[in-house]
Amino acid sequence: MRIGLAGVGRIGAFHARTLLGVPAVESLVVCDADQQAAAAVAKELDAEHVADVETLLRAGLDGFVIAAATPAHAPMLRLAIEAGVPTFCEKPVAHTLEETLELARLAATSEVPVHIGFQRRFDAGYRRVQEAIAGGELGFVHTIRANTHDQSPPHASYIPTSGGIFRDCNVHDYDAIRFVTGREVVTAYATGGNKGEAFFAEAGDVDTGAAVLTLDDGTMCLVSSTRYNGGGHDVRLEAMGSKATLTAGLDDSLAMRSAEPGETFPAGPPHQTFMDRFQPAYVAELTAFAEVAKGVTPSPCTVADALQAFRTAEACDVSRREGRVVQLAEVPDL
């Protein structure tokens, strides 16, 4: 397969290396707004590089991976669908709910497969939780706890275009909750605060957030996020049921210490970034995309799925700003 990749920043360069390890991928063509960066990555990986996305989409591709900055996702995805090229797009699909809705409508009327990059769907722990819930192993599930806790904050320049902590960090949790439970969110109540750098508040964002979600079967979900988890990168999901509780992300890499005398769990070391936490999931995700691009399997995470996670993030942001419970029915849908 011949795969094109747009964006060679941190996640883009990571995806480029991952793609070249996927057995079905024979050649890689990259581009970036910074043509020198694209040339450098291409040289390092013995790949090709072109000047822009338009040229890339005319390069005889079997599949296209969008790993550029968030504002570029929507226009690139439109071009790819119009060009008829199967596409993998990192989350979010777009910067706003309106654009996400527009792209969901476009994707629904197209035969071009689109796979959205929510890698937790390919993490072994999250998949095990999904299987346990679906199989009734936990009994009835009454509570889900999910968190995305970053070891340290991103650069100040990233925050104004990030969409805010609920859209940037917790949107992964919202998608994972839908994935493991098979249920939809019906209400959201969220809050947040700032104890760190001033640039979060200056951008109208928070550095720590929390939300209570209610699913359509009455399951309660407690979701948290922070940019300041100094102990390490901590991403987990706990499913609590009438028969048992099962947790994804509970191993010796857990980014916390026990206060109990003599306790040595977790042994460490903790993860420091999302890339080392989910490295196997990224490999599985892009391997799956190759199968989607070949037409062997349908997309495991569609634009319609991404829209539902974004709607929950939107509801949480409205809730934080207005200090009230938000019904998901208030947030526009297809």
TrEMBL record:
Keywords, in A-Z order: NAD, Oxidoreductase
InterPro entries the UniProt entry points to: Gfo/Idh/MocA-like_OxRdtase_N, GFO_IDH_MocA-like_dom, NAD(P)-bd_dom_sf
Pfam family for this entry, one: GFO_IDH_MocA_C3
Residues making up the signal peptide according to the UniProt record: none
SUPFAM superfamilies: Glyceraldehyde-3-phosphate dehydrogenase-like, C-terminal domain, NAD(P)-binding Rossmann-fold domains
GO MF annotation list: nucleotide binding; oxidoreductase activity
Boundaries of every Gfo/Idh/MocA-like oxidoreductase N-terminal domain copy: 1-118
Recorded superkingdom: Bacteria
Stretches assigned to the GFO/IDH/MocA-like oxidoreductase domain: 126-246
Family assignment from sequence similarity: Belongs to the Gfo/Idh/MocA family.
Protein name: Dehydrogenase
